[in-house]
Amino acid sequence: MQFKLLAAAVIASLPLVASAQSSVTIYGIVDASVAREDNGTPGGTRTLVNSGDQSTSRFGFKGVEDIGSGLKAIFNLEGGINVSTGMGDSALFGRRAVVGLQGSFGTVTVGREYTPIAEVAKNSDIFGQGFYGTNLVAFGTDRLTRRISNSVNYSSVPMNGLRFGAGYGNGETLVGPSLDLMGIAVDYTVGGLYLGAGYHTVERLAIGDDKEMIVGAGYKMGNFAIKGNWMAADLAGPNNKYEQLGVGVSLAAGASTFFANASEQKLDVGGAKGRTLALAYSYAFSKRTNVYASYARLSNNATARFGIASAGSGLVPPAAAFGADPSNLSIGVRHFF
Q1: What CATH number has the domain spanning 27-53+96-336?
Q2: What is the mean pLDDT of each run of 10 residues along the chain (337 residues)?
């Protein structure tokens, strides 16, 4: 009920906001698909409607105001939507909620923001962090961190293609481990070449800090592109390291784009390993609307129970189903507004 009241209040205030700031933009994505998924166990196959397989369905508000002396005030509020049910995320603007200043020095934001590693991960994923088989599977509990709340963040102005970013998330705890996250990232873009790297530390336990890292690259030549990255989450304690390695290619031909991606996940403990092969196709009716089809299958070894993820959904074998091989076939439509 509180979510509904808050959403109604925000929508009701839009005419007032728009009249006060002409640069306010309302935007969003609506993405839905029909999927056939198999969790890799007997009787584990079902057909369902998913929301956000290529892009997470969302709505948002962003704006900028020129406040003089080369300085601009900016804000962005963005929330997720589940198209299959009509429900919103548990946090109204859980995807991004920031306000900040922008100038010749770069951009500073405060609030809930993407981590420095997240930007590198997106730029080095051939799927653009959409479709089953994306590197989003590397983020989450006991994995890498994609967003940070209570944060202060900085992104530099690109200089000859080189850009630097940093973020600090305050865990705001009174006792015990601070839960603070500190991260940096650097990337370089020139022509069709992209190179990026990032590093986080998270004080999750009293015995030491978790370490998260990424190295990513990409190259685009005409209608062909290749991208790949290596990500790792080295949790405090022995034998807790998680790694993900992926590489993919795409080829555009008129309104059609073909994608292929291969990736591997592994854990130090137990020698768990899983390999994923994913294929996708997109056809653009316009700049704002496209249809797509995708297929992904993950093969786990006998000690692994890894899953696959798309932009807005995930599929993991049931607890104790080690060695199960999940797969997903999706056909969907996506529209930007």
Answers
A1: 2.40.160.10
A2: 45 44 88 98 97 97 95 98 94 97 98 98 97 96 95 98 98 94 98 98 92 98 98 91 98 98 96 98 98 98 97 96 98 98
Strand runs labelled E in 224-272: 224-234, 241-253, 256-267
Euclidean distance between CA atoms 205 and 237, whole angstroms: 9
d(CA 64, CA 113): 17
* Closest by Cα among 16, 269, 248 to 123: 248
Exposed / middle / buried, residue 324 (Cβ in 10 Å: 0-12, 13-18, 19+): buried
Contacts of 261 (CB under 8 A, 6+ apart): 125, 126, 127, 133, 134, 246, 247, 248, 249, 276, 277, 278, 279, 280
Distance, CA of 176 to CA of 328 (rounded, Å): 41
DSSP 159: B
List the one residue out of 293, 305, 278, 306 whose CA is nearest residue 134.
278
